[in-house]
């Protein structure tokens, strides 16, 4: 099924890109931008984004592996101070 008509990206393309990214780096954070980049494309109108993200999430390799540790509670409230 074609998900992105502007770039002719199919659901199979998205799933293959997610699987490839996860195979090359199990800890990578998969984002739509990274999927577009992996496919050698750029987002255009954005009309497909809901379906695009749904297809990413449906990919077998989308979920982050169990080997990663959650962010410690002490760090979740920290914010970077902007100076300037």
Short description:
This protein has 84 residues and is mostly helical. The chain has helices spanning 11-24, 32-38, 49-58, 73-76, and strands at 2-4, 9-10.
Write the layout of secondary structure elements.
Blueprint: E1 2-4, E2 9-10, H1 11-24, H2 32-38, H3 49-58, H4 73-76
Antiparallel strand pairs: 1-2
Strand order of the largest sheet: 1-2
Can you tell me the number of structural domains? 1
The biggest beta sheet reads: 2 strands, antiparallel
What amount of the residues lies in strands?
5-15%
Q: Which percent bin holds the helix content?
A: 40-55%
Number of helix segments?
Answer: 4
Anisotropy-based shape: globular
Give the tally of β-strands.
Answer: 2
Task: Summarize model confidence as the mean pLDDT.
Answer: 83
Instruction: State the secondary-structure class.
Output: mainly alpha
Kindly report how far apart the N and C termini lie.
48 Å
The low-pLDDT segments are: none
What features would you describe in this structure?
By secondary structure, the protein is mainly α. It has one domain. 42% of the residues lie in helices and 6% in strands. It has four helices and two strands, in the order E-E-H-H-H-H. The protein has a two-stranded antiparallel sheet. A hairpin with a 4-residue loop joins strand 1 and strand 2 (9-10). Helix 1 crosses helix 3. The longest helix is centred in the N-terminal third of the chain and has 14 residues, at 11-24. It starts with a strand and ends in an 8-residue tail after the last helix. The model has no long low-confidence stretch (mean pLDDT 83).
